[in-house]
Structures are given as C-alpha cells and as structure tokens.
Amino acid sequence: MSVREANFDAMAFRQALGRFATGVAIVTTIDPHTKTPLGLTISSFNSVSMTPPLVLWSLQNSSTLLDTFLKTDRYNIHVLTAEQMLLAIDFSKGNQEERFSKVSFTLNEFGIPKLDDTCCAAYFECYNKSQYPEGDHHIMVGQVERCSHTDDMPLVYHAGSFSLTPSKGK
Predict the structure, then answer these.
(1) pLDDT in tens, 103-118
(2) How many domains would you assign to the chain?
(3) Closest Cα partner for 54 from 105, 104, 117, 128?
(4) Which family does it belong to (predicted)?
C-alpha cells in the first residue's frame, strides 16, 4: 500500500487544524549537564491510554530542546488555567532563565521542575516512555506516574490565539 501525496496547500491545512480547540500546557524537565530547569509551551497534548496511563505531546524537530527531551528520563506536564495566558506566552519565547524567573516552582523527587500547585488546572509527572519521529515533529509518549487537578477553567488555544472558549472562525 502506498501513501497518497497530499493535494492541498499548507496554509489551508494549517487553517483547518486551527478549527480544533486544544488546551495549553507547559512541559518542564532539567538539563542533564547544567542541572538548570527547562520548559516550553505546548498545545499538542492528548491522552493515549488508561491502562497503563499514557499521554502524548509533540515537539518540532527544529526545537533547541528536542535533544534534551529525547534523552531525559522524566518530564512534568502542567495544564494551564484560563488566567495563565501570559505564562503560556512567556514559556513560548525568550531564554530558559527568563521563563522560570516569572513563576514559582519546586523540584520533585526526581529533580524535575514542578510549577506551583495553585497555578495549574492539571499536573502530570511522566516517565519518558517512548518517542516517534513523524514529519517535522517528534511524538513524545509519557507514562503518568502521578497527577493532580484543580477545578479551575483551562486555557484554550483556538484559531491561532489563546482564549477561554473557542471563538467563531475568522
């Protein structure tokens, strides 16, 4: 069986994908060499399995953090609340020191940065189970070792912007 060549333009594909509202999360780990905290904002987070408890997220192949996340044993995923749009923006740009200077965090028992409990709608401590290169991204599968949640409204990403709820199409 062969794969058909896609017969559409990239912009139309991107706009169609933008119609799907997603949550927003920050993934954190530790630099194995310098022991400094590392993190980034993602909107590609999903559940995979209840038994065992698995989640997935994806990271661009061009990310400067790709090598670290491919090699780390563990990472934490923090689902952001509706009030955390600025934190999501902060963790999507700038250097790592700037990102972590704007939020309080502790290190969990494995030395992985855990954002303050009061700041997240949900939290997942994950073992880095597997990774799969696909297209211009790597799919990361994490086995959840511990999780918690609040009743706060989650931050939503839809049609290229952050929101409390999905907005009408542009």
Answers:
(1) 999 999 999 999 986 6
(2) 1
(3) 128
(4) Belongs to the non-flavoprotein flavin reductase family.
Instruction: Answer whether residue 157 is part of any domain.
Output: no
Residue 164 domain flag: no
Cβ atoms of 111 and 48 closer than 8 Å:
no
Which CATH number belongs to the domain containing residue 83 in this structure? 2.30.110.10
Do the domain assignments include residue 66? yes
Q: Kindly report the CA angle at 123 between 31 and 117, in degrees rounded to 5?
A: 90
- pLDDT averaged over the chain? 90
- Residue 6 in domain: no
**CA-CA distance, 78 to 91, in Å (whole number)?**
12
Non-local CB neighbours of 146 within 8 Å, separated by 6+ positions:
124, 125
